[in-house]
Amino acid sequence: MLAEMAANSEAASRPNYGDALSKSILFFEGQRSGKLPPSQRMTWRKDSALRDGIQMGVDLVGGYYDAGDNVKFNFPMAFTTTMLAWSVADFKPFFGSELPHALDAIQWATDYLLKCTSVPGFVVAQVGDGFADHNCWERPEDMDTPRTPFAVSRKYPGSELSAEIAAALAASSIVLRSSNRTYAARLLSRAKTVFNFANTYQGSYNDSLGPWVCSFYCSFSGYQDELIWAAAWIFRASKLPYYSSYVLDNLYKLDPPYNGGSFAEFGWDTKHAGINVLVSKLGFANHLQPNPFLTNADKFVCSVLPESPTKFVSYSPGGLLFKDGGSNMQHSTTLSFLLLVYARYTSTIKRTIRCGNVIAKPSRLAQLAKRQVDYILGDNPLNMSYMVGFGRKYPQRIHHRASSLPSIDVHPENIECQGGTSYFFSSNPNPNVLVGAIVGGPGINDKYSDSRADFPHSEPATYINAPLVGLLAFYNTH
Length: 478
Hints:
This protein is mainly alpha-helical.
């Protein structure tokens, strides 16, 4: 049924999805914080932030820098981890030789998230002072800005953060089970503990940590979506009926009726469309008539489909999906991921989606997702790949400290906080190629300035890449 999904793309213009898959995973090695392993392939990056957590007396070394800065923001990091795990959970047969690298990328995050949840009654939300960090342009290896850890607690809760970490740990346990059953069981056990903490002590981390998180990753959608999202993932990992019951019993807490106001939203902050697609696949709401998850997943599709009368998104003349807010490629990759997952599911159950008088077959959903992937990889008006290091033409001046400053191998002397300013303003290409990074992307007119200062368009982020990993794995073999 899905054989026709890729048929609308001419073979002559087919990108090398296998190469793009390899590079999309390699990118995460460039974002690593902590003590780098001997297997590190992006060798211009070195050890960094080796004393993280010392103020709390807890080892918080490891994890990922979220984008072009040197702070560890755990809310988007956890979402990145969930999406990497979902990519493998749904598309594992298509990863081939890249599967071990994908699992390494996931475990690099989960090792750190276990540390962040190791003290009962506390969940670490962030390591590093975002304001001090953003006032500097320096390599992570040279950081001299405060590495302050910020945590939520029973008294000062942060349910969206804690629940997203629980989702990440549960999703990761599914894909790591076959290679390390003991470790996967530990992840799932911790996911249940952290979910219980998030649910028992409900509140937004905006209220407890707003002065430090809200200029960067403030939560705008509340925390009920993360609680339901986490419960769905723990159910998928454990099959325990408590968690499916939790989803159904708490559904009314989302925007009425059943997240009707946010069905089209999905990303590091808002989980609604992801919940609907995931729970539809899990099937535990099939006894409900009508099934609100299927209904809202259909509405999500109709909000994205270009020919739909209820389309909520915009498209550039070249065909790139656009939503409001910066770093637009995150919308292109996350929404395309959901389209493909839902296409495969609706193909299996032979479900046809109707958007007014428009019929959306599964093949059309997959074709639209593939169009977004192809645009990112260079099939666009500028003939430019928005994946660094892929193709003949790609961004050279990305907004990324480590990439834009000379590596320690070339410049072993320390570069202080303001010492990198001249590199930021230089018109020269970045000296270190952050292979696989997807930048924020062009404007809605398909134009791209390739400027470090234009960070909404030139900055990469882990949560842009994570869903693309699954898309590339699928299209490499279809």
